[in-house]
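User: Could you write out the 3D structure of this protein bound to thiamine diphosphate? I've included everything you need below.
Assistant: Certainly. Input first, then the structure.
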Amino acid sequence: MAFDYDKYIRPGKLPHIWCPGCGHGIIMKGLIRAIDTVGLKKEDTAIVSGIGCASRLPGYMDCCTLHTAHGRAAAFATGVKMARPEMTVILVGGDGDGTAIGGNHFIHACRRNIDMTYIIMNNNIYGMTGGQFSPCTPTGAKASTTPYGNPDPAFDVAKLAIGAGATFVARGTAYHATQIDKLIAEAIQHKGFSVVEILDDCPTTYGRRNKFKSVVEMMNRLKEIAVPVKAAEKMTPEQLQGKVLTGVLYKEDKPEYCEQYAKLIERAQGGAK
Amino acid sequence: MAKKVAFLQGNEAAAHGALYAGCKFFGGYPITPSTEVAEVMSAELPKVGGKFIQMEDEIGAMASIIGASLTGLKTLTSTSGPGLSLKQENIGYACITEVPCVIINVMRGGPSTGMPTGPSQSDVMVAKWGTHGDHPAICLVPASVQELLEEMVRAFNLAEKYRTPVMVMPDEIVAHMRERVVFPEPGELEVIDRAAPSVSPEQYKPYDTQFGDIPPLASFGSGYKFHVTGLNKMADGFPTTKASIVQAEEERQVRKVEANKADIMKWEEYMVEDAEIIIVAFGSTSRSARFAVNEARKQGIKAGLFRLITFWPFPEERLLELSKQAKAFITPEMNLGMCTGVVKGCVEGNAPVHGIFRVDGEPINPGQILDKMKEVK
Ligand SMILES: Cc1ncc(C[n+]2csc(CCOP(=O)(O)OP(=O)(O)O)c2C)c(N)n1
Ligand code: SF4
């Protein structure tokens, strides 16, 4: 039997706002399958986002959903999770939202290692505002504010997350749709701050300007550049040129913030030292 | 049993007021002269099972207290000047999403970094106009350490009752001075909790006006699922651009406070019955003003003090009434005329309004006010 996505979609809230060919919908389906796999209860799951096309995702999900200010999802989510650690908190948003305006909240959420899962939909561009470059736009690429080609170097989101202290970091792509749910499910089950970067496409504002002839071509690019971490082990640096690793890139067990805080409360109340 | 008495600093008393009101979550970022609030909360909250988090910046601090409030907790942040500027976007978010929370802003010199340890009263306009768009504003301006404690309790009550952020703005003098404080006994001051929904999770809508202008707010994680967004929204919390709904919702959000002004506004009148000169003042300045009024009376000048305790909403109607009796108003304030302008608007030209302005980090002293009284008499 086909998977029943409707169980997790809010009645009456579709169709979504995303353009034909946008990868955000593929990621939402992956998230739904992951929630189902892990067996989360909708009323105990909070989905938090900032602003952007990607950040519209929570509105479609039949959970406790919080669509906040641009870049601030991690900070709002920190309040939710700390106040109610028994809830599962999942953050979603775009690369611009998460790494530009939200960069500070992002790195500090990684550092704290609070048990939340952050799905960054990296389409290399600011989609919602019409295609201005983001910190993830490749150098030289065209965007509405880089008419001569992007002069900025780009962030590697996964490396940034690992460097900042996230204890689970994975990468997938919107092309590899069946892998998304597995990565997200593992991220949710990981105790600590998990980041899942999903390479995504924005045919409307990125593809058009950067000479992709079709959505299919954009998707094929994702297919071509992705190399699973296992396969990469056997590849030479030359072979890895221009490729991007996918799968679970980093995993570590470290004390989780809310658990540590619970111990702090015990100490303050004169309990365990 | 004798009540607990302590010699406390304003900021410390503010924190104790928050705890009395049942605050269980504090998210902050340190800034002088408000840091002691965070310090006391970090020590006291865990003792009562509450949580303190020092966020990476003020934007995050404000965001965290909105997130925590949505799970049902009473939440607080404290800041000063530049920190308040950073919090503005999310204060607007709390306004439109109607999430209760309390913000202490200790007024220091500005704009920008200004005078980090110098007192001012120059954030009262930011309290109303700081975030963009039309929105309700409640701002309390206590004048003593005891009052700061008690007004904190009232701030939480107003936040919970009207589902909106509430600002408490002591000037640096009130926040940093030490005075005797008598702790209220449990139950002595009213403590209000937000209304819980009376409908089932299936029927629940976070902005359902069939329950009036202030619909009950459910908590995330309590079995209720709902959507919260900073976009203009419908009763179910989902975005809309439908003109009639947007207009009605914007008006309702402002009306929540405007229609309940009588409940929210608080002021003190001292010798105004027969006063010909009325001083309108707040915070530490009002203490100099009271002294000046006493001196003036001794010298045969019919002076009185109108002390604002709530700055927003502003007691326009009462000042208009008084303007028919007074020959002049004097408005001493540690800024360049913010309150003066508002009072001028209230009195509609019935009486002249003379400002005394200081932005040099020095308090306004009674002598200055007395001199002004003699000048305008
Ligand atoms: C404070 C603030 N600054 C700017 C904006 C405008 N803005 C809205 S969405 C967006 C970019 C979104 O890009 P991204 O996060 O990459 O998501 P996408 O739309 O590509 O999915 C910007 C700059 C805003 N809403 N708020
Ligand atoms: S503009 Fe781009 S990111 Fe936004 S919905 Fe369209 S394709 Fe997706």
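Residues 125 and 338 of chain B are 7 Å apart (CA to CA).
User: Perfect, thank you.
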